[in-house]
Each structure stands twice: as C-alpha cells, then as structure tokens.
Write a structure and sequence with these properties.
Layout: H1 3-18, E1 40-44, E2 56-61, H2 70-73, E3 74-77, E4 85-89, E5 92-96, E6 106-111, E7 128-133, E8 141-146, E9 156-161, E10 176-179, E11 185-191, E12 194-202, E13 216-219, E14 224-226, E15 232-233, E16 250-257, E17 260-265, E18 279-283, E19 288-291, E20 294-297, E21 304-308, E22 319-327, E23 333-337, E24 340-341, E25 354-358, E26 365-366, E27 372-377, E28 390-394, E29 399-400, E30 403-408, E31 411-415, E32 425-431, E33 446-453, E34 460-467, E35 474-480, E36 487-491, E37 497-503, E38 506-514, E39 536-538, E40 543-545, E41 551-557
Parallel strand pairs: 8-15, 26-33, 34-41
Antiparallel strand pairs: 1-2, 2-5, 3-6, 4-5, 6-7, 8-11, 9-10, 9-12, 12-13, 12-14, 16-17, 17-21, 18-19, 18-22, 20-21, 22-23, 22-24, 25-27, 27-31, 28-29, 28-32, 30-31, 32-33, 34-37, 35-36, 35-38, 38-39, 38-40
C-alpha cells in the first residue's frame, strides 16, 4: 500500500473520532439542483512522473461519485492483461495493478466520462488523463482529433502500434486507448515513436474489441507516424458508421385483411430496387402461386412494407411468402426467404385517402423555380385509372400543367415544368373517385389542398475556398444543424472555389472531403480488407444563415492542423 494511502487512513480515523456526524453523505434538503459535474482534483503520482516503481495509483474527486462506475471508466495504455483492484476512501479511489509495470515504459491512464456524482448523476465533462513512466523519460508523442457523429457519447479511440505489421481489430485489443469528451474531442499523450493505426469505436460490449454489426466504427484516413521530427499529429478526425455486411431478413409477416400483407424487415431496404416481382405467395397445400398486385411502404414503421393481392386465399391451406433479390441500403442482398403466415379473410372496406403532401421544404412549401411535391396515399391504387385525376391551379384558377411519376403503389411525385410565382398559394385538386384500391374500394370525393411557393427573398447562400495540395475531386457539403440527412453537396472548381445558392435560413455546418474513388459519395473506409476513409475537414464555425444575407469567405484548409 502506498505511503500516501496509509497517511490518508490515519487522517480518516482521527476525523471519525472527532467529527462523527460528518460520516453522513446525504445532501441537505432544499437548495438548487446540483448541475456541477465531478472533476479529479488530485492524482498520485503527479502527471509527468518518471522512474515510477510502485504498483498503485490514486485519484481524488471534487465530490462523492458513484463507485460502481469506476470499472467502466478506467483505461490504461499500454493495456494490461489483468484488471486492477479498486478500493475507496471517501472521495479517493486507490487502483492496485495486478500486472507488473514494464520497464522503461510510458503509461497513460484515462478516467472516463462514465464517472457520475452521487448528488445528481452529473457526468464528468471530459476524460482525465494521467501520464507517467517507469523509465527516466516520458514519451512525448501526441495524437488528437474529434468525432463528428450523433450519439457518440462514450466512444473510445483505439490506437494500434503497427510497426511490425497490421493488426486484427476483430480479435486484438488496442495498444493504447483514449475516450472522447462531451464535445467529441480526444487526446493521446505519452506515445512513443512509431507507426500507428487509429479507429473510433462505440464499444457496446465494453470488451475493447470491435464487434462488426454491433459497434459503430470510424476509420482514420491514413497510418500515422510519430518520430523525432514529428511528435504531434492533430486533426485525426472520425465519422462513426455501422458496418453492414449482413443481408436483410424478414422479421414478421402479418395478413391484416384478405387483400393486404404487411412485411416487416430488420432494416431499411433500397426501395429503388423493389418491385412486385420480388414477392409472391405460395399455397403449399395446392402448390399454387399467387402474384402481388402492388406494394408500398408504410408510414408507421420505416422497415415495413405492404403487399396487395387481389386473389382470395383459402384459410384452411398453408401459405408462404417468397421474397427474393431484396437489397438493403448498403446493397447486401437477401437471395430468398420463405416465411409462412396466417391467412385473413377479413374484407377490406376502406377507401383510399390522401394522407399527406410531402415537399422538400417545411410544411407544404414548394420551390417556385422547380415546383415538385409528393402525394402520399393510405393504400395502393390502380395506376391505369388515375389519368387527369390530379390538377394544380393558381388562385385565379389558372390550370398549371403537371407531370406525375409513380414512386410506389401509394405515392406519386408531381412536377411542373413551369416556373411559378414566388410567395403565392396554389391549389392541388385530387379526384379520389379515380383512385381504386385492389379490393375495388373508392370514394367519390374531390380533395383540395393548398401548397405555397417560397418567397423570392427568403433564401440565403454560402461560398468560399478549399485549400488542398490537389484540387481534383474536392467535394463540399453543407448540412442543417440537427438534421444530418438534410444536406447539399457541390464540387469545388479547379481553383478550389465553391458556392451554395438558394439555401433556406437556418444554422448549418460545412465540411469538405477528398473524393479519392471519384464516386461522388463520402467513403467511411473498410476494415477487412483495410481501406482508409476519405480525408475530410470541417469548417470550424457554425453558419447562421439569414434571408438575403449570404455568407462568403468560408475557408477550409486541409494543410492546417
């Protein structure tokens, strides 16, 4: 036991005899809610200690913390084979190593943000890092960066020293570990010279092993080399992404009435590759096959699809759904799956309703330069009978010519080749009497809905310059804060200039990436075989775009750390 711990124990005994009432840790009633996160106010040994030869270290917190969290919050690099033992005295934790420390080695200990206080479960804002050495010097290599992903709390950074060859991240624990702060920032200190491979891992099982399909992963854009000439590398940044190497599968098949079958998959599908020929119904009793008439995606669940059939099924027979050549959004292919289901003979008596109008802007606002919107219905319909069933009028009853295309059995995209007037209302007339579902239900009703064009002066914009050694295939992305899927991408010109026009007022983030594979899509990389992510960099400031006030002079310099 360290001398310092013995001293603390003696002090504690004296305090117990002198101040018995202080043993009660219950917070006094009343007062303001505790919002102050715990911090580490003292550590032994001191940061930067050399020639350390003890088997115990300690940390003192600013307040009482939940002791059970220390197991998940403690990390030491290089990693030890056996877990240490933890003991507590008041606000101080004593950590006794079960493995002997290696000679002439720099160690880095991280106390992570899993630590919470007793009063209100406030988490530590940032990991605490203690660096010490068993030799006469501290390795001074540093690597730092940031995670740019939603729900990245608790993400670990795995650093593997790869001087002697590549590692198997599926089986090997990292050489060094760091953890991100609540702002997504991480730091490695005390690294020796050598070649490193870095990964960001949302380690769901807390086993310090990357588990594909369960953990999110971020891959650096290159190996990182620390040497005497370069002791620090900054801006090693990551996006988190879940690798998907598994084909989709069917979770449930439910026949809701005699004409509709709801199929629930385990993940979103690539709807552009779905048609009625991907499904069929097999009566195994009579060895008969029934075709699917229509399909559409439900609004209630993102992984649910509805199949429509016109034939009546005999509830006394056994039926199977054949689903084949189904792709998920990552292009993994379900070759064939044949779940059985229970037949329903309940009649479908519901006529089709217009459920919503979907536009690219808020509510039912459309662009006056390239007007388009989607009509989403409650059920699939016979597309051969909807001719002239949809009309677009101006307020003065001027008929606007439109074209429509079928997105799926229950969704239509409406487009007009004419430029409309800004800041004006238009009427959408839908004759539901021409929308007949597969059970021949219909209603003789004309629905009138309003759409409005956006104002000519309601837009903003953003422009700037990319600095990079090579300006080939540089893409720039602007995305609305809090809405990662709402983004626009442009390509920088040969001089590195870019511009976004006609942006809606909002707060935006801007980032750029080098499209090394020239496919126009940011690549997160791949683990096996190892393929690095494409280099990317964020503009450091959030843009607050206001109407008629475009922001210029945005500069993203890939050479600056």
């Amino acid at each position: 036991m360290a001398k310092r711990q013995i001293t603390n124990h003696l002090i504690l005994i004296l305090l117990i005899f002198t101040f018995v009432k202080c043993a009660n840790q219950i917070s006094p009633p009343g007062g303001e809610v505790d919002k102050i996160p715990p911090t580490i106010i003292d550590a032994y040994p001191e940061n930067g200690t050399t020639n350390f030869n003890e088997n115990e270290i300690e940390f003192s917190f600013s307040e009482y913390v939940n002791k059970r969290n220390i197991n998940e919050a403690f990390f030491i690099s290089p990693i030890m084979e056996n877990n240490p033992e933890f003991s507590w005295t008041n606000k101080t934790v004593y950590i006794e190593f079960q493995d002997s420390l290696k000679n002439n080695t720099t160690y880095s200990v991280v106390i992570g943000t899993e630590i919470t206080d007793v009063n209100n479960n406030n988490k530590m804002e940032a990991p605490f890092i203690l660096t010490f050495s068993t030799g006469n010097k501290i390795d001074s290599g540093k690597i730092s960066g940031k995670i740019y992903s939603d729900n990245s709390d608790g993400t670990l950074i795995f650093a593997y020293k790869v001087d002697t060859g590549l590692v198997d991240i599926y089986k090997e624990k990292p050489t060094y570990i760091s953890q991100i702060s609540d702002k997504g920032i991480y730091n490695f200190n005390g690294l020796g010279n050598g070649l490193y491979s870095l990964f960001a891992v949302k380690d769901e099982f807390k086993d310090l092993i990357y588990n594909v399909g369960d953990d999110k992963i971020g891959i650096a854009n290159s190996f990182l080399k620390l040497d005497e000439a370069k002791k620090e590398i900054k801006d090693v940044n990551f996006f988190l992404n879940k690798e998907d190497t598994l084909a989709p599968n069917i979770q449930a098949v439910t026949m809701t009435d005699k004409n509709h079958i709801v199929v629930e998959f385990n993940e979103p599908l690539d709807s552009t590759k779905i048609n009625v020929k991907n499904f069929s119904i097999i009566d195994s009793t009579t060895n008969s096959k029934f075709a699917i008439g229509h399909w559409f995606k439900t609004k209630s669940k993102k992984n649910e699809y509805v199949l429509c059939i016109s034939d009546s099924l005999n509830e006394e027979n056994e039926f199977y759904l054949h689903a084949n050549n189904i792709y998920d959004v990552n292009q993994n292919k379900l070759i064939l799956e044949t779940p059985n289901f229970i037949v329903s003979t309940k009649p479908d008596t519901n006529s089709i309703k217009l459920e919503s109008i979907k536009t690219e802007f808020d509510k039912t606002t459309i662009d006056y330069l390239s007007p388009n919107f989607h009509l989403i219905f409650s059920d699939a319909f016979d597309t051969s009978k909807i001719s002239n069933s949809i009309k677009l009028f101006s307020e003065d009853s001027l008929n606007i010519p439109i074209n429509y295309s079928i997105v799926n059995g229950a969704q239509i995209k409406i487009e007009s080749g004419l430029k409309l007037e800004p800041s004006k209302e238009y009427l959408v007339n839908v004759d539901l009497g021409k929308f007949i579902d597969i059970a021949q239900n219909k209603t003789d009703t004309v629905i009138v809905k309003k759409v409005s064009t956006i104002g000519e002066l309601d837009f903003s914009g953003a422009s700037g310059l990319i600095r990079h050694d090579s300006l080939r295939n540089i893409n720039v992305v602007i995305q609305k804060v809090g809405f990662a899927n709402q983004k626009i991408q442009v390509k920088a010109d040969k001089n590195g200039k870019f511009e976004f026009e006609r942006l809606l007022p909002a707060k935006y983030l801007v980032w750029s990436f080098v499209d090394t594979d020239s496919n126009g899509i940011f690549s997160h990389g791949n683990i096996s075989p190892l393929r690095f992510s494409e280099p990317f960099k964020f503009y450091p400031d959030t843009l607050n775009l206001r109407p008629r006030w475009p922001v210029g002079d945005i500069e993203i310099d890939f050479s600056k750390n």
